[in-house]
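FAQ: What does a ligand-bound record look like?

Like this one, built around adenosine monophosphate:
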Amino acid sequence: MNILLLGSGGRESAFAWKISQSIHCKNLFIAPGNAGTGAYGKNVNLSITDFAAIKAFCLKQSINMVLVGPEEPLVKGIHDFFLADELLKTIPVIGPQQTGAQLEGSKDFSKQFMIRHQIPTAAFKSFTKETLADGLVYLESQRLPIVLKADGLAAGKGVLICETLEDAKTELVAMLQDAKFGEASSMVVIEEFLKGIELSVFVVTDGTSYKILPEAKDYKRIGEGDTGLNTGGMGSVSPVPFADEAFMKKVEDRVIIPTIEGLKADGIPYKGFIFIGLMNDGGDPYVIEYNVRMGDPETESVIPRIESDFVELLLGVANGNLSEKQLIISTKIAATIMLVAGGYPGEYLKGRGISGIENVRDSLVFHAGTELDNNVVKSSGGRVIAITSLKDDLFDALQTATADAGRIYYDGRYFRYDIGLDLYNYQKEIS
Ligand code: AMP
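The answer part, i.e. the structure of the complex:
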């Protein structure tokens, strides 16, 4: 098969690494890719939202499957674009059509969906500019802290957790009246604050059946001990020790099955990944959010634990026979550490030469924000490289990934030394 993978981050590096090992893969193209993805296929200079250019490329290279990494092309309707085109409609796109992508593209849509299908989630109410006054009154009746979410895509920045009523009111006005997040905050979901520990659960579906991929925990804050600003993700671990069989059974019964059945009942076709952000509150799962693609950096921990052929699984999604496919998951522990740019997540350094990648001893190296400049690997994004170590034991995985992260150097390089330590301590406590 000729496969086109859209995206350029660490998630896409992990996908490309795995796809390139498939017996089904003849040619892999990554658009636009990064300095590392060229090792698994051919990087192509295409914009992931330029559907006309993607069409021309697919026809020229006889592409047989398109895997969409990030959410933006899905929310903008790339799958619908393929289905509506006479020449493209037979090329399967892995990722939902626009209606399904609303699960991520609109917080209000996803909350309504959860309520309709009795999926446990935080209580909420949505407001617009026209109903701002009602929103301000509503805030007065709510417990603190309170969560404000821009309805639309806001590059991961649209969620605010407000500790005081005054702060919540100021932010609601800023979002609705002053368009703090542009069009994305023309509607705001005000949501109850959930307590507990977060984890990410991943499901792949052909619209009829589903398979549960390895779960993961990610680390969003920039600073050690989960302090400081939110980032795109500083690391991840899979599996998650507290997501034991009993908890995962609740997740499947209360969340996954109602989600798949809910999509069917609502007549929403869905072929692709569902990333369910969950809160574990005293052993009960609550949905924080849906995403319509895999997570980053969770994918860098999840994919290395999949032992079976990944393209075979994607073929099941495309052809509607996912239930016949085998998914073999390793019992090993994957730990991923993200190396980021100096200054990130604020203004950060770019274009710094990266050295030492060849010194990594016992981990996988997934490039994220990197580019080749005259054959020199340089940093180009906030999250630069993900290092994943796969071991029998959590501590070993964490220690190996940390040691290997330290072998890579560039000006301003930063990473957290405490990824997964909470899980290690939890494990020690229960054993
Ligand atoms: P989201 O974009 O919806 O995933 O929100 C980003 C982050 O905000 C989540 O990963 C949580 O850490 C936090 N968050 C979102 N909603 C809630 C909530 N209702 N209660 C507590 N934390 C939340």
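Follow-up question: can I read anything off the structure? Yes, for example: The longest strand covers residues 272-281.
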